[in-house]
Amino acid sequence: MEDLKSTPLRAAHEGLKALMAPFGGWLMPIQYAGIIAEHRWCREKAALFDICHMGEFLYKGDIVADGLEGVFTFSVKGIPVGRSRYGFLLNEDGGVIDDLIVFRLAEDEAMIVVNAATTENDLSVIRSRLKNPAVLTDISSRTGKVDLQGPLSREIMVRHFGPQILDIPFFKFIRTRILDVDAIVSRTGYTGELGYEIFLSADKVARLWELLLEEPDVSPAGLGARDLLRLEMGYSLYGSDLDEGITPLTAGLSTFVNMEKEFVGKGALQRELAQGSPLAKVAFRVDSRRAPRHHYEILHEGEKVGSVTSGAFSPMLSCGIGLGLVKPSAAALGTRLVIRHERVEMEAEVVELPFYTGGSLRA
Amino acid sequence: MAKFFTKEHEWVEVAGGQATVGISEHAAHELGDITYVELPKIGRSVKQFDTLAGIESVKAASDIYAPISGKVVEVNQALDEAPELVNQGAEAQGWICRLEGVDEGELASLMDAETYRTYLRGL
After folding, report:
1. So what's the ipTM on this one?
2. Distance from CA of B106 to the nearest CA of A (A)
3. What is the pTM of this model?
């Protein structure tokens, strides 16, 4: 545990008696009271997450001249100032080095938010693709981030930070002052609920955490609940559903790939489009409360057709749910599948996403 | 009646030739929210330390081993609908199944409650 990094909120988590465990090189809270209770709280009220482990890079320069425009699967110059966009950093083979969000702060300024475990590699890959690497600064260690997610998050945010919060539609953000420092408040999240991501100076994040927890409707939630919430929405998790050997097309995420522009990996994706993907993403629902888990085999008509990339028990649907990669012939809606691991076997059916449709995301 | 415990955190209590089996409070706490219990089939015979049942929590799936040999004569059907009963009382209402035809001599290879507590402290 000694090699693990800690967020500025470690003492707060320990004070709350959180179960802490390694995650992406960080010691993070997995749960406080219990994963299912935290999950329900997020769906019904507002849950607070420590997301300080994620990486942030600040870019300042000429997006086109520096070559930033060709780095991701979406156009950075095409993002209006005040908006953010989700997409990918790919390798030459079209495999996903990371999934990330770019915030367009100004004409010549952007913040890139990446996964914790991939931060260092992302930084070196992005820098290697820029004409002038100095335009990109790693601000991860000085940036604190908490997410407030849940149907009551908006009224709580308004109470603390004023009516300007009402001016943030989905996937937009504002730059503001919180606790006397510059902050970014964004209408994003990964839970399927109405929610906000708040970025501010790392030395203020513990105070912000305390402040929001003073609200009776706010409860802390750990990475356990976060994983179930994102899976109920069918969102991909880097390292499970996405990795360097999986392209965004195979992973069913072509929406976030702009084939009209140039980017590293585009050639491989064009070949995949021409030849067809060898595997397809499926979402499936299990007939029982049994949970499919990462790497379990997927069978169709007695033949192994793929494997589970993410799976869990869904607290809202009271059954097992999962994502997997299978031969395209087994991916049609309604296809009956068998999920198998050692002596465990469960029946499942291919369904549409999201699994859970009752969220307040776009409220 | 006295409970006996395995190193794998099952408990067993024998009364009138019938053994009641479950997982320990410690195991239930470690597993976290329990979401599914795979109950054994009634009529099945198991040897001591064979796989008896399965249990899943949000975090993990685990096997439950038979703390004693015997034949399954009853299962805790309530766990089908409410597996969280194991979290609420692993050594009471969260019992898993009952076995008959048991050999009480096998209890000698298990830990009594006090020895089990000492064992947990050493983990």
Report:
1. 0.89
2. 27
3. 0.94
